[in-house]
Structures are given as C-alpha cells and as structure tokens.
C-alpha cells in the first residue's frame, strides 16, 4: 500500500523557519548572478545552478546521476576504468550546462572515493583535460562543515540541540551542535558562521553555535554494500552492517547521551536521507521540490 503524505507535513519549512531553495525557474537569468555547486561522491554526481533571490536561492538548472565512481574501490584501492568513464560522461553534461548558463562562479568538490583512491590525482587531471572542470578533493571536516551550513535555513528557532546527519555513498558525517546559548532568532545564522570552522572563539556580543562533537567514518551505502556482498542472507547482512556501523560510531561522544526530545532536531542531508523521504511520500519519480525541507516524525 503506497503511503500518503500526512496532513501538514509540507515540503516547505514552516513560516517561522527560512526557506532555502525556491522551485526551479525556467525563465531567463542573469549569468553574472549565477552560482554552480557540484558534488562528486562515491555513488553519485550532483549539481545545482542557482541565483540569489533575496535571502533565498532560485534554482535555474540541476543535474543528478548515479555514476558509481567507487565500485570496486574496497577491493582494489583504485578507481576502475569503467567507473571513471561513467563519471567523465556525467561531468561532460555538467560542463555543458555550466557553459549554457555562462556560470563564472562555482565550487566543484569530490569526496570519499577520491580521498581514498590511489589513482585519484590522475583521475582529477583527466577530468580537467576532458571537460575543463577543476575538481577539488575536500577533507572530511570540510565535507561535514558544508553539510552543516547547507542545513542552516532548516534550523528551527526553537532548536537547542541539533544533530546533522550526512549519509553518502562512501562516508557518513555526524555533527552534534549545542544552540542553547544562542538567541532563538539567531540560531540559523549561528549555524552559517560555522563555515569558518567547528572550533570558534567565544564572543559575548555574538554567541556561537557550539559543536559538541563530530565524526566522519569512511562508510556509506556503497562501501557497506561492497564489504558485505559475500553474505547471502538479507537479515544476516543487515545485522552485520548495523553492528559494524555502530562499532565505527562508538567514539562519537554524544551518541549514547540522554537528551530531552523538546528542543532537539535532526536534519538529514544527501542521497540516503532524500531516498527515505521519497519512499515516505510514495514517489514513483524523484521530485526535489517535494523532498527538500520535508518534515518526518520519528
């Protein structure tokens, strides 16, 4: 039975929260105002092209494709020729979209698969030769910071304890943030200020969001799948995956801490969480405008 969207569970945040992204705009845009953001992960390649509209962004164009860049990485420690070929084809499409919209301001990042692969530097050079795109391999803390600041507009002014969860194809980041010392209306902006780093000096005039703890583990949906392919029974494989994943998260200090539900918020980002949201809505075809900002209860 296909689940129905519960009454009141809207994709757009409530009025007391900021709205991060407006629906795609098929109209004309000013190239001088456009930004492109590209994320090349272990499993997928995604890009958004957007322009500022007040305190929001209007999406002009987008691209998303499962490229499986990290297939076979667990066993060989290298990116395979086939996976690199698929990824370059996807990046060519991104490059054509960037050229079409005459985008001049962009950030193009690669994450866990390129951090781990022995031939990642050769791959990055090959991408630049083939497409003209300069990919930047970012560190785990930078990936976690980008995930956190991207979620800032969804932080409720009532939130005192925030957990940001980013489950990708090759890595998972968890960041626990204490906002109890920040005035309610300043909490989303306090999250944005974390772009400068997770450990900031305290300022009386401008109270900071405090990162209680964070962790990045080199496990995601693709790497877990590769590590447990030899277990044929579904239930046994899931149990082993869960145990192994929890073992890797054991050093995350707030993990077993007791916190009241009131004032606690979890924000999830990346493909795994958005897939759960799409399944929750019963979508037969993924629709970003319905998934972005969706609220789900536990």
TL;DR?
With 298 residues, the chain is an alpha/beta fold. Helices cover 32% and strands 22% of the residues.
Structure in words:
The protein has helices at 73-76, 81-100, 112-116, 120-131, 140-150, 187-192, 221-227, 234-248, 271-281, 288-291, and strands at 21-22, 35-40, 44-53, 56-66, 105-110, 136-137, 161-167, 172-178, 210-217, 264-269. With 298 residues, it is an alpha/beta fold. The protein has 2 domains: 34-138, ATPase, nucleotide binding domain (Nucleotidyltransferase, domain 5), CATH 3.30.420.40; 141-291, 2-Layer Sandwich (Nucleotidyltransferase, domain 5), CATH 3.30.420.150. A 6-stranded mixed sheet has the order 1-4-3-2-5-6. Strands 9-8-7-10 form a 4-stranded mixed sheet, sandwiched between helices. A hairpin with a 4-residue loop joins strand 7 and strand 8 (172-178). The two termini are 20 Å apart.
Secondary structure: elements and pairs:
Blueprint: E1 21-22, E2 35-40, E3 44-53, E4 56-66, H1 73-76, H2 81-100, E5 105-110, H3 112-116, H4 120-131, E6 136-137, H5 140-150, E7 161-167, E8 172-178, H6 187-192, E9 210-217, H7 221-227, H8 234-248, E10 264-269, H9 271-281, H10 288-291
Parallel strand pairs: 1-4, 2-5, 5-6, 7-10
Antiparallel strand pairs: 2-3, 3-4, 7-8, 8-9
Helix pairs in contact: 2-4
């Amino acid at each position: 039975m296909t689940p129905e969207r519960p009454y009141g569970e809207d994709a757009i945040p409530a009025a007391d929260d900021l709205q991060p992204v407006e629906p795609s705009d098929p109209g004309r845009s000013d190239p001088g105002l456009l930004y492109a953001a590209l994320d090349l992960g272990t499993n997928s390649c995604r890009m958004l092209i957007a322009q500022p509209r007040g305190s929001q962004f209007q999406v002009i164009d987008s691209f998303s494709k499962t490229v499986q860049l990290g297939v076979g990485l667990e066993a060989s420690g290298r990116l395979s020729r086939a996976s690199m070929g698929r990824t370059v084809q996807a990046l060519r499409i991104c490059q054509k979209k960037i050229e079409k919209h005459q985008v001049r301001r962009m950030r193009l990042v690669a994450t866990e698969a390129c951090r781990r692969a022995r031939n990642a530097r050769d791959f990055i050079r090959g991408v630049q030769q083939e497409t003209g795109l300069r990919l930047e391999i970012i560190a785990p803390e930078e990936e976690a910071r980008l995930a956190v600041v991207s979620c800032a507009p969804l932080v409720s002014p009532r939130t005192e304890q925030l957990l940001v969860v980013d489950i990708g194809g090759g890595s998972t980041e968890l960041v626990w943030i204490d906002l109890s010392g920040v005035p309610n209306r300043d909490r989303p902006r306090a999250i944005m200020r974390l772009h400068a780093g997770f450990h900031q000096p305290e300022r009386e005039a401008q109270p900071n969001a405090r990162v209680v703890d964070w962790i990045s583990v080199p496990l995601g949906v693709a790497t877990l799948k590769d590590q447990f392919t030899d277990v044929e029974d579904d239930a046994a494989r899931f149990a082993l995956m869960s145990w192994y994943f929890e073992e890797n998260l054991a050093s995350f200090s707030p993990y077993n801490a007791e916190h009241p539900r009131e004032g606690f918020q979890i924000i999830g980002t990346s493909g795994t969480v958005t897939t759960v949201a799409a399944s929750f809505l019963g979508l037969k075809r993924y629709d970003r405008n319905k998934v972005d900002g969706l609220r789900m209860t536990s």
